[in-house]
Write a structure and sequence with these properties.
Distance between the termini: 51 Å
Radius of gyration: 18 Å
Order of helices and strands: EHEHEHEHEHEHHHHHHH
Number of helices: 12
Strand content: 5-15%
Number of strands: 6
């Protein structure tokens, strides 16, 4: 008898979770068994610790602190939990943050159904899995060649920012206006303004020009 790996889906987009669930469960023994879904950090931690899946499919950015916070809290009580990051983001700093946090792999949402099933099986079996381009980020980071990713994970000043604030920081430093950032992140310009104010306050900066200079000095801007 074939035993399917069990998974918990963690993503703040319900429609995406529904699509992944259907993709995994409609394959019968060739797929995976979905034990549950969660849309924020607190719900995810509770469900993972309660259901104890073989693999957690974890998004990077979500309400309550993001994927890194889920990893931290789960591994405090269940250090052997296997996690596969599944995200739209292919930013080096996001990849490195999740891997440093204990994820066994990182693939993007452009992955095919067959590839995702294979990745889950590999992670469940103890292997590490990365989308081809992302594997290069990981190798470069541990070889000391990705300054931006390492700085973003290790810089104590940045540790105080939320995942969303880091996203806004990067986009502001790259020259995007509030309305452009709002469109890219699917939030309102007012919310962008709120995040910028929080970033400036936490980093003790006065304006976006100082923020851009600060980010450039730390090689956080491409």
């Amino acid at each position: 008898m074939v035993t399917r790996p069990t998974v918990v889906l963690v993503d703040d987009h319900a429609l995406f979770r529904a699509g992944v669930r259907a993709e995994l469960e409609n394959r019968g023994d060739a797929g995976a068994e979905v034990l549950g879904e969660a849309g924020d950090v607190d719900e995810a931690v509770r469900m993972i610790l309660d259901r104890e899946p073989d693999v957690v499919l974890l998004d990077v950015h979500m309400p309550g602190g993001g994927g890194a916070e889920v990893l931290r809290r789960v591994h405090e009580k269940r250090p052997g939990q296997k996690v596969l990051a599944l995200s739209v983001s292919d930013e080096p700093e996001d990849v490195i943050a999740l891997i440093r946090g204990g994820a066994r792999g990182y693939v993007t949402k452009t992955i095919s159904g067959d590839e995702l099933v294979g990745a889950i099986a590999k992670v469940a079996g103890g292997d590490a899995v990365f989308s081809p381009r992302l594997a290069g980020f990981v190798l470069d980071a541990f070889a000391g060649r990705i300054d931006a990713a390492v700085a973003l994970v290790a810089d104590p000043e940045l540790d105080g920012l939320t995942d969303r604030e880091r996203e806004v920081l990067r986009l502001i430093a790259r020259g995007y206006m509030y309305k452009e950032i709002a469109r890219r992140l699917t939030i309102s310009p007012k919310t962008v303004e709120h995040h910028v104010s929080a970033v400036l306050r936490k980093l003790q900066l006065s304006n976006r020009h100082e923020l851009t200079r600060w980010a450039t000095e730390r090689r956080l801007v491409d």
